[in-house]
Amino acid sequence: MKPAPFRYVAARTLDQALQLKAEHGDEARFLAGGQSLVPTMNFRLTQPAMLIDINPLVELAGLAKVESGAVRIGALTRYGVLERDPAIARDLPLIHEALPHIAHPQIRNRGTIGGNLAHADPASEMPAIVLALGGKLRAQSVRGERWIAAADFFAGALSTTLEPDEMLTAVELPATQPGSGACFMEVSRRRGDFAIIGVACTLTLDADGSCTAAQIALCNAGDGPVFATEACEALVGQPVDATAIEAAAERVRSAIDPGGSIHGSKDFQRHIAGVLTARALIVANERARQ
Amino acid sequence: MSTKTETMAGADAHDVAVTVNGTAYRRTVEGRMLLSDFLRHELLLAGTHVGCEHGVCGACTVIYDGVAVRSCLMFAAQADGHAIMTVEGLAPDAEHMHPLQEAMRECHGLQCGYCTPGILMTMKAFLDDNPAPDETQIREALSGNLCRCTGYQHIVAAVKLAAERLRG
Amino acid sequence: MSTRSFGAPIKRNEDARLLSGQALFVDDVELPGMLYAAFLRSNVAHARIRSIDVAAARERSGVVAVYTAADLGAYWAPGPLLVPPPPIAGTIFNQRTQVPLAKDKVRHVGEVLAVVIAQSRYVAEDALSDIAVDLEPLPAVVDLEKAVADASARVHDDVRANIAAHVRQSRGDYAAAKSRADRVIARRFQYDHGASMPIETRGIVANWDARANQLTIWDTTQAPVFLRNGLAAMLGMSERQVRVIAPFVGGGFGPKIMLFYPEEVVIPWAAKKLNRPIKWIEDRLEHFFATTHERGQTHDAEIAVAADGRILGIKDVFLHDTGAYNPYGLTVPINSQCTLLGPYVVPNYDSTFTAVFTNKTIVTPYRGAGRQHGVFVIERLLDIAAYELGIDRAEIRRRNLIPPDAFPYNNEIIYQDFTALSYDSGNYEPILDKALEMIGYDKFLKEEQPRLRAQGRHVGIGVACYVEGTGIGPYEGAKVQVQANGRVSIATGIGTQGQGHFTVFAQVAADHLGVDVADIDVVTGDTDQFYWGAGTFASRGAVVAGNAVNEAAKAVRQKILKLAAEHFECAEEDLEIANGQVSVVGVPGQAIKLGELALKANPMRGAVKPGTEPGLESTQYFGPPSGATASGVHAMIVEVDPQTFTLQVLKYVVVHDCGTVINPLILAGQIHGGVAQGIGNAFYEQLVFDDEGQLLNASLADYLLPTALEVPHMDIAHTVTPSPLNPLGVKGAGEAGAIPVGPLFAQAIEDALGLVQQKVELNEIPLSPNRLFELTAKLR
To answer: Could you tell me which CATH class the domain C422-470+628-780 is placed in?
Structure first.
């Protein structure tokens, strides 16, 4: 399983990388972690004419807190680095909880958050988390830069709204606030496999334990990450008790249109979505009350 | 301004200067040559094995700039300027084995031995970061390496034993 | 014989090389001028070949040759039948074997159409896309029941209803038994066994040296001697001109003993034709199609029982998927047929199977080799009978076990080794008792399960019994030799794929020859080192080759004593062999190192008596009259999440009897590995085909091998009933771990979820969370 021939270029600068991408468009692909791209190349399912290796662009990696208090993560930041960073555990507990489910340590040592998001596999965990948190993603090209809201980034299975000449260079996510609790759960066949269904949720409670904000997003529930809008709206303004949780789970079950696979039929996925939504909300609620 | 018409890799030759197990190598390779093939067939370090070429089995795991990675998912050209440790570099010298290798032998942690180099490199990196793991942590760290022979039990025992010895 | 080495958990001789990455596997062979092959494979399951145009591929830079069936000329021929059908009266058998490159028709996805030989594997794969193939697709034969309909499309045009074979074996009078029964239980069972997926795929390097007139082949085969013989015949060469080396092999498990795979036949031919060494390494994608599977059977079975649970008779009719060709004969379904009887007294038995051609990869034995399917049927029937009769599951098994005084126990039907199925020795009740004790069976059912249920946890227990026919003939041989440097060398014809032969065989010889295991060099799998043999399969390596080593070591011991007695001018009884030397007991200083004695046995001058042989060497063969029957019980406690249907094994116990144990550490490894594959078979692995015969999950991301998180810690214990069929008393152990895991999972999951009480039965393998969800739909 050897890849088809391509022209390999190790980018020296971000400008050079963007210039090449502008010239070659969809015939050139950025090589970041390669953990999603290279397998498809070895299967010859993908045959890019050019690979622009952006790993030398170390300035694209790293975390920083920005003025608004949000966490800005460089696209080239490796999952293994995020796993070991206490700032992630503290500020982005959803990511911290999801990381052990993302593939395996060797994959996480190379795989990058930007690469994973730009690959946009509907079964991937991170797109659902970014969507749940209402993050934004920075795209850069020779034409300049723009920020794309998470809700506008994912365009279908393996598809994003990045233009052919754009590179995803950062993702910015709001940090968790006091009074909030988050939970990520997934069911997969083995640890590290793609989720049959995954649920990422956050709840914010007021002093009386009443829900003031809810965010629920699922992976592998559609052709991209799915935000369960109705379920979230229905949770706001009341305590997150068993009835509210069951109602939310039911809304999630009705809202999604999973594709089914050999690992789980659509009915099974729908069923799991309801089960995990309920379980994740219970945990998020407990964490919010702490 | 270059044109968009360059697609053939026939003229695509890349210099790779890479340090493997402390030795500096210099080769010229096609852009698409996988790092696993480079190690095995260019450098004749055949201890790193190939099991799937799609990043699942872990047999090709090497330590790249200090972390365990799947060499079948990297290109040799990427390794220019980097440092790699393979199973051939694990033992301190010709007369002695690394505690992980010794423990694997004592605990019968290998049968056909094909997945073993990948497991050794994964566990070396794991123990470097986690010197006192419990069984659950070991199994989690091992879950990215497939073994079809051993059922993992003796490998887990070997890692525990090696960890004890490495802690002194 | 002292027991210093034999029976001890000695560390393996071969490990240092494997651990340092210095062991030679086939892909490690590098030869000057070597070329690389890639095969073009069909991407449809069933089609007529209209044309294959390789002109463009031949033009590609870096391509040296491209061949199709037409280029093979008279060399092209269907492969030989490796295992003829057993001598069972009334058997129908339609032999159709695989071909080196497809001609006229392709019969499964992945069947080879052409081969490209190029400067690198990369270029060879590039050239595959240059080849234009014109195929006329035909309806694919996929489902077994549809396949045997007269109107079905035919995998082989002249084989009606895709009947590859039809075999009936019976004993006693089932109809009469049924009429006497207090209860008759009939069910349909579906058992699917997957693919072996060794971490090393197949590979071959062929090196033709025209000047030395010698062909050397490195191959990941489990049967180097048979491969050498067959290839020599095909290539019109003498066997002495062909050397097959199976070096270190990264896992075999059965499919690597399938012989005359197309690639094995084409690559040596091409190497001779081009006068260049050629390497072909199967990639993992190819492996899903090109290396044999085991796959599925559908059983309609019924059991007639008395009110106390005793089996009066069993009737079973099953369909067996044999794939597109049947070179391996009927080994797998015969094993299913025979092993269904288990460790139980089954006075009346009527078993019929139809082996069915399908447009899928060939089916040949994979660890368990069809035993799993039969064991699933009997164990499930007993569970159902237990429930209906109100008898405990362990108790119903106990009541049916063959008693210890009934051996040798003759089941009368014909086994895969063409002899009557006879169990040589066994003592089954203590195995069951030990397993129940280790798993805490009674306490679990009476106390722990109710307590956990009250907490809302769904925990269940299972117990399953099996026997395994091992150590079959025809024979193996071994040559043992004391070398001039005092080291002992052993050579045998079988190959090694991780079973520890380099150590185990040394252990067998070490005590006879008074040397350390570490001073013995074992060579396996090289036809130049040992000429004769069958191969590593059917859990027979330790039994058959081990006993050959034993005979040869004993013979060498006799030679040592005879020569030393002459040397010291004493009686043989006065001598002792230990620590690498022979000494006269009680006379210090009267000692000679074995190496020196070996030199004396090969003098450069003087006279040697006629009829004697030089050296301290002996070659002996061992062929058992029939197989030795190992047995065991597995028990498991599992927790199932009642909403997600994911599960976790909380405890796993194996009690196993494989007779005398040579190395308990290596034996434990074999059990662990077998169970791991059994767990994969039970709950994770399934080859998923669509109606067109396309494999939907041809990658390790979707064909799910269990990892260290899916395989639990196992507690192993042994009982020992030596085999009377060989001097060492050993029985085989390689496959045992894999055999009963399917019914164990079905039983324990049913127990955890209380399914049987709710009229849901799990009569199929593999299971999965998704499948459990579907099967329990009526309960929600």
So the answer is: alpha beta
**ipTM greater than cut 0.90:** yes
Q: Which residues of A touch C283 (CB under 8 A)?
A: 1
Res C279 pLDDT > 80: yes
Name the DSSP class of C596.
H
Segment 134-163 of chain B within 8 Å of chain A by CB:
140-141, 143-144
Region C604-621: what's the mean pLDDT? 88
Q: CB contact, 8 Å: B67 with chain A?
A: yes
Q: How many inter-chain contacts (A to B, CB under 8 Å) are there?
A: 111
Give the residue extent of every domain in chain B.
14-89, 99-166
Note the CATH architecture for domain C473-622: 2-Layer Sandwich (3.30)
Map out the domains of chain A with their CATH numbers: 7-53 (3.30.43.10), 61-173 (3.30.465.10), 180-288 (3.30.390.50)
Orientation of helix C664-679 relative to helix C741-753, angle to 10°:
60
Segment A134-188, tens digit of pLDDT: 999 999 999 999 999 999 999 999 999 999 999 999 999 999 999 999 999 999 9
Interface check C21 vs B, CB under 8 A: yes
Which architecture does CATH list for B99-166? Orthogonal Bundle (1.10)
| Residue B8: band (very low, low, confident or very high) from pLDDT cuts 50, 70, 90 | very low
Compute the mean pLDDT over every residue in chain B, rounded to the nearest whole number: 94
User: CATH classification of B14-89, choosing from 3.10.20.30, 3.90.226.10, 3.40.630.30, 3.10.450.50?
Assistant: 3.10.20.30
Are B31 and A105 in contact (CB < 8 Å)? no
Which residues in chain A touch residue B73, judged by CB atoms under 8 angstroms apart? 34-35, 38-39, 110
- pLDDT of residue B1 exceeding 80, the answer is no
Q: How far apart are CA C440 and CA C447, in angstroms?
A: 10
What single DSSP character describes residue C542? I
Which residue carries 């596999």 as its tokens?
A121
- CATH annotation of C164-194+293-400: 3.30.365.10
Three-class secondary structure assignment of chain A: CCCCCCEEEECCCHHHHHHHHHHHHHHEEEECCCCCHHHHHHCCCCCCCEEEECCCCHHHCCEEECCCCCEEEECCCEHHHHHHCHHHHHHCHHHHHHHHHCCCHHHHHHCEHHHHHHHCCCCCHHHHHHHHHCCEEEEEECCEEEEEEHHHHEEECCEECCCCCCEEEEEEECCCCCCEEEEEEEECCCCCCCCCEEEEEEEEECCCCEEEEEEEEEECCCCCCEECHHHHHHHCCCECCHHHHHHHHHHHHHHCCCCCECCECHHHHHHHHHHHHHHHHHHHHHHHCC
Which residues in chain C are contacts of A189 at CB distance < 8 A?
684, 704, 768-769
Interface of C with A in 626-685 (CB under 8 A): 643-644, 646, 684
Q: A119 and chain B: CB distance < 8 Å anywhere?
A: no
Confidence of residue B168 (pLDDT cuts 50, 70, 90): confident
Residue B6 has pLDDT above 60, yes or no: no
Say what the pLDDT of residue C3 is: 57
Model pTM score: 0.97
* pLDDT for residue B63: 98
pLDDT for C417 equals 81
Write out pLDDT tens, residues C166-219.
Answer: 999 999 999 999 999 999 999 999 999 999 999 999 999 999 999 999 999 999
Whether C35-163 and C473-622 share one fold: the answer is no
Per residue in C540-583, pLDDT (tens digit) is 888 899 999 999 999 999 999 999 999 999 999 999 999 999 99
Would you identify the CATH topology of the domain C198-290? Aldehyde Oxidoreductase; domain 4 (3.30.365)
